[in-house]
Every structure is written in structure tokens, then in C-alpha cells.
Design a protein that fits this description.
Layout: E1 17-21, H1 25-36, E2 40-44, H2 50-57, E3 62-64, E4 78-81, H3 86-98, E5 102-105, E6 118-122, E7 125-129, H4 135-151, E8 170-175, H5 186-194, E9 197-200, E10 217-220, H6 232-244, E11 248-253, H7 263-272, E12 277-280, H8 285-292, E13 305-310, E14 324-329, H9 335-344, E15 352-357, E16 365-370, H10 374-381, E17 387-391, E18 412-414
Parallel strand pairs: 1-2, 1-4, 2-3, 4-5, 8-11, 8-12, 9-10, 9-11, 13-14
Antiparallel strand pairs: 6-7, 14-17, 15-16, 15-17, 16-18
Helix pairs in contact: 6-7
Length: 428
């Protein structure tokens, strides 16, 4: 039997009688699959595996503990034979053929009227693969397709509205990480591939937007320091309105939606208006961007804790000591004021400071100085957002830090360099 002789289809066996002949491992797997499809299963076999006996004892199927008889196929819709005896399987197959009943013959796939594919289920998508009678090949292909669907490399997006025209929308708040497309979570990538509408920030994995289907709407709501063209209240309204229209909405954010990303506000607003919302954590830039420059936020002997604040927040409650790392997000515009505030709070002026611009992107740049020098350095070199500022002794660990870092002169800037791997820190 050639693969081109096969007509792929799916059987709806809900509530319909089917016959399984055989009681071994193959028959057990097939019986369970038929039960999952809602079929009324009868197993005919002199002996049955322990799982089959358990199913029979639970009343989930009927087991006839005897040899097969030709009349067993009477009135059934589908037959699976897997006795391990090719002669018995051939007889079952012939009896089914005589009554025009589809039968899978596990002993002889070439002579079988039907084939059982390798099957996987991802969301409400069922993948079935036939591979020329080679079950291991079929399973390998099935697993590869399922993995691609789960990771978002293949589209899971629904295209057909339900029969009555109604559709239930939803919102997913997806943290996209610091910007590199490889740092979004598998779950986030998968939801993005299912989206009908994407409400996108200025930061995050923007390149992924180019991979969306042409009819996916992208609504830009990105903010820059001091400029919020789409107010937060309007963003909240957009999420709810689009979901209530039946759309799958992804709110694609940079970093993590719950780390200074106002994700909590958006989730509360959605739930208050009866919209299902899922929060998908992302790799927050507060930790990942310093790591791109080789700066840990904690390090044995240097820092046991850290605080994450924005440059617009008061720093009076942050521990002012070099062994407690301070991470400033969106802080370039008020860097001088922030450095001054930390100095007045008691942080030594020679405390190391690192600024990482465009973390993980090709134009990443690292500037390292001290609390006393960093504001002048940032102005001189044109430091701009998006940038993460790290203050504390952990900056000494960075390979970008100069060899004379423990002397009076700490100032250094590494120029923009192309990144070739998100797993490798650039040579300073």
C-alpha cells in the first residue's frame, strides 16, 4: 500500500460501538485511544492486560474473555485487531471487509483497510501523522510538529468562527524579555502565534511582529520617557474592547509585565470587565540586561540583595551602601539627580556604576564609572534609553570594568559592538 492510496480523515466515534480484538499492549493503547474519542469499546481476547482489566472493572469498556468469533463484528462501526497472531488478525480483517467495516490490522499494515496514525494534541489541535507504515518515523515527525506548535514556530491561531457566530475573546499579558527574540518564553511565543490582535510596547522582541500573519492587527501603544501618546486608561480600554469582540489579544510587553510594567493594573481592569486574562512572566530587564554586560545583581562577598526602582521614584528608602545593588529602570533622564540623592543618603562617591544600553541587541553599549562621575560620562557619551543602570559593588565583576577599577580612576566606556550570541558576554 502506497501513501498516496491513503485518504486522510478523522472519525467521530462518540457513542458508537467499536471492537478491539486482542488484549496485549497494542490493543490496550488502541482501546484507551478509542475511549478517549468517546466510543463504546468491546474487547475480545482470552486474556487481557492489567490496564484493560481495570478499565473493564471500572465499567469503562466491555471485555469478553474468549476467542474471536466472526459475529463479533456485527453492528460495530470500527474494528482494531491486535492479537499478535497474524492468522486471527487476517480473519478479523476479512470479516470486517465483508461487512464494509473499517478495520485496522496491526499484523499487516499493507493489507490493512485503515491505518492508525501517530497522534498528539496541542490545545484543541490534533496532529495525526502517517509515514508509509513506519511507526517510529511517524512518531518522530509527530513530536517535531507538536514541539513547533507549542513553541509558536507554527501558527495555532484560529481562523474559523464558531457555528453560531459567537466567540469568546481573551487577553494574555506577555512579557517579551529585554528585546532579543530568543528570550521570550515558549508560552509567550505560542500565545503570540495565536493572537488576532497584538497591543505592543516600544520595547521587547519587536522582530517577532514581522512574523505575524498579515491579518493580525498590531496596535502600537509604546511609551517613551515623558511621552505617553496612548494613556494607560486607553490601553486598558483597548484590551477589553478587543477581547469582547471575540479576539485573542496579546499585550506584548518588554521585560516582565509585573515588574514596573503596569501589568497588574491591566489584569485587574480585564477581570473587572469579565475578560479572561492570562499573565505570562518574562525575563525582566532589571536582571537580564545587567547580565548581558556580565553584571550580576547579587554576588557572594559583594551583594546579598538588590532593589529595583525607576529613575522617577524616590530613592530615600533604598539601602545606601555598596553591598546592596540598586537597579534603575528608565533612569537616564534623572541620572544626575538620582546619583546625588544616593550620595546624600550616604552612598560613597566611589561606588561603581554601570549603564547598559540596548541590552542583548546589536547596538548594546556599556558605560562604567562611579557615583561621582557617571552623570558626566553619560552626558559626554550620549547615553540614552532604553538603558538599565546598576549601582553597587557588583559592577566590579563585569568584564567591561577596567583593570584599575580599585584605584581612583574608574571611568570607562565600551563602544557599540555587534552581538553574535545572547549567551556570550562581549570582550571589553
Amino acid at each position: 500500500m502506497a501513501i498516496q492510496d491513503i485518504y486522510p480523515t478523522a472519525l467521530r466515534l462518540l457513542g458508537r460501538p467499536v471492537l478491539v480484538v486482542g488484549g496485549g499492549p497494542v490493543a490496550t493503547r488502541r482501546a484507551k485511544g478509542l475511549l478517549d474519542a468517546g466510543a463504546r469499546v468491546t474487547v475480545v481476547a482470552p486474556d487481557a492486560s492489567a490496564p484493560l482489566r481495570e478499565l473493564a472493572d471500572a465499567g469503562l469498556l466491555t471485555w469478553e474473555p474468549r476467542a474471536y468469533r466472526s459475529e463479533d463484528v456485527d453492528g460495530v462501526w470500527f474494528v482494531q485487531t491486535a492479537t499478535g497472531d497474524s492468522a486471527v488478525d487476517a480473519q478479523v480483517s476479512a470479516d470486517a471487509e465483508a461487512q464494509r467495516i473499517w478495520c485496522v490490522n496491526a499484523s499487516d499494515h499493507e493489507a490493512s483497510a485503515a491505518w492508525t496514525p501517530a497522534v498528539a494534541v496541542v490545545d484543541d489541535v490534533k496532529i495525526a501523522v502517517n509515514a508509509g507504515g513506519d511507526p517510529r518515523r511517524a512518531m518522530a515527525l509527530r513530536d517535531a510538529v507538536a514541539t513547533a506548535l507549542e513553541s509558536g514556530d507554527l501558527p495555532l491561531r484560529r481562523r474559523r468562527i464558531s457555528k453560531d457566530g459567537a466567540s469568546t475573546g481573551s487577553v494574555a499579558l506577555v512579557g517579551g524579555g529585554p528585546g532579543d527574540t530568543g528570550l521570550i518564553t515558549v508560552r509567550g511565543r505560542r500565545l503570540l502565534g495565536q493572537a488576532d490582535v497584538v497591543v505592543a510596547d516600544r520595547l521587547g522582541p519587536r522582530e517577532l511582529l514581522k512574523e505575524l500573519a498579515p491579518d493580525v492587527r498590531v496596535i502600537e501603544v509604546g511609551k517613551t520617557p515623558g511621552h505617553h501618546p496612548v494613556p494607560q486608561a486607553e490601553i486598558n480600554r483597548i484590551l477589553v474592547d478587543e477581547a469582547l469582540k471575540g479576539h485573542r489579544v496579546v499585550r506584548l510587553k518588554g521585560g516582565d509585565p509585573y515588574v514596573l510594567g503596569r501589568g497588574g493594573e491591566e489584569a485587574e481592569f480585564c477581570r473587572r470587565h469579565g475578560v479572561e486574562v492570562e499573565v505570562v512572566s518574562g525575563v525582566t530587564s532589571a536582571i537580564s540586561v545587567p547580565a548581558a554586560a556580565g553584571i550580576p545583581v547579587t554576588h557572594r562577598g559583594l551583594a546579598k540583595g538588590f532593589s529595583v526602582v525607576t529613575g522617577h521614584e524616590e530613592l530615600s528608602e533604598v539601602p545606601a551602601r555598596p553591598d546592596h545593588t540598586v537597579v534603575l529602570l528608565m533612569g537616564v533622564g534623572q541620572l544626575r539627580e538620582s546619583a546625588s540623592a544616593l550620595g546624600k543618603a550616604g552612598l560613597p562617591e566611589d561606588t561603581p556604576v554601570g549603564i547598559v544600553e540596548n541590552g542583548y541587541l546589536p547596538n548594546q553599549r556599556v558605560t562604567i564609572g562611579t557615583l561621582a562621575t557617571i552623570a558626566d560620562q553619560a552626558e559626554a557619551t550620549g547615553v540614552a534609553n532604553p538603558a538599565v543602570i546598576v549601582i553597587g559593588d557588583v559592577v566590579r565583576v563585569s568584564p567591561f570594568a577596567p583593570s584599575h577599577f580599585k584605584t581612583a580612576d574608574y571611568s570607562t566606556t565600551s563602544p557599540n559592538k555587534p552581538r553574535t550570541s545572547i549567551n556570550r558576554v562581549l570582550t571589553p
